Structures are given as structure tokens and as C-alpha cells.
Amino acid sequence: MTSIVVVRVRSGIRMSANEAFALKVLHLDVPNSCAIVDDNAEKRGMIAKVAGLLTWGPISDETLALVRKVKKDAKATHFRLNPPRKGYSHKGAKLPFAKGGALGDRGVKINDLIKRMVE
Fold first, then answer.
1. Which of 106, 10, 23 is nearest to 58 (CA)?
2. From start to end of 1-116, where are the E strands?
3. What sign does the CA torsion over 52, 13, 29, 79 have?
4. If we measure between CA atoms, which residue out of 5, 2, 108 comes closest to residue 54?
5. Residue 61, helix vs strand vs coil
6. Chain Cα centroid distance, residue 75
7. For the stretch 86-119, what's the b/e string if a residue is b when 16 or more beta carbons lie within 10 angstroms of its beta carbon?
8. Which residues of the chain, if any, have pLDDT below 70?
9. Cα gap 110→60, rounded to integer Å
10. What domains lie within the chain, and their CATH numbers?
């Protein structure tokens, strides 16, 4: 089973109780936190519920090893990261990634974002 990494980009001002619960289950309590989750229908449903606050994509083994090395925890599945160097994108954190923003599915480009947040 493949794993995906989910990064919380925005805060949760005026979110519903269902959205707050989904973020709690995903261990995304604060902005710039990330969680490594299994790619299954249940997790995809939770991600879809709060997609306006998150960005995600499949994580490579190299990036996962880098995060665990820097954070000094070989078994953890959720981390607090620094804000990314040079920001999320030139159009900000309110637009989808497909339109030049920071939200939504990034595909393999999520690995570049994670590396900028770890270093």
C-alpha cells in the first residue's frame, strides 16, 4: 500500500465540527504540520472534507527518510515542520495548486515542498 503525505497549509478559522474532527484524526492540529497516511478510501474522504486547508501527494522513500532523520524519530507518522523556504507559491495559500496556489493535490511535487520545510 502506498503512503501519502498531507500538509496543513491554512488555519481553521470558522470550520465545522466535522472538519475539526477530520483534522484531529489526521493529526494535523496546527498549520505547517504534516502526517504520513495510507492511501485508502477512508483517508481520502477525510482529506476531501478539509481540502481547502491542505496540500498532499505521494511521498518518496528518500523524503520520508530525510524527515525522520531531521526530526530524530524513526517511527513517527506526524511531524511539525517549519514554514517552507521561499513560501508555498507565488499566488499564495488560497488557490489550488493547479492554478499556481498551494492547496490540493501536488502529485510528486509534494516532495520538493517537504524538503523546503525540513531544511
1. 106
2. 3-8, 33-38, 54-58, 78-80, 104-105
3. positive
4. 5
5. helix
6. 18
7. eebbeeebeeebeeebbbbbbeeebbebbbbbbe
8. 1
9. 9
10. 3-118 (3.30.1390.20)
- CA geometry: angle at 43 spanning 68 and 51, to 5°? 90
Beta strand residue intervals within the chain, DSSP E: 3-8, 33-38, 54-58, 78-80, 104-105
Three-state DSSP class for 22? Answer: helix
As to burial, measured by CB atoms within 10 angstroms (0-12 exposed, 13-18 middle, 19+ buried), residue 44 is middle
Give CA–CA dist 20/118, Å, rounded. Answer: 26
Half-sphere exposure of 29 (CA within 13 A, CB side): 4
Give the torsion sign (CA, 65, 69, 72, 78).
Answer: negative
Q: For the whole prediction, is pTM greater than 0.85?
A: yes
pLDDT of residue 73: 87
Cα of 112 vs its chain's centroid, Å: 12
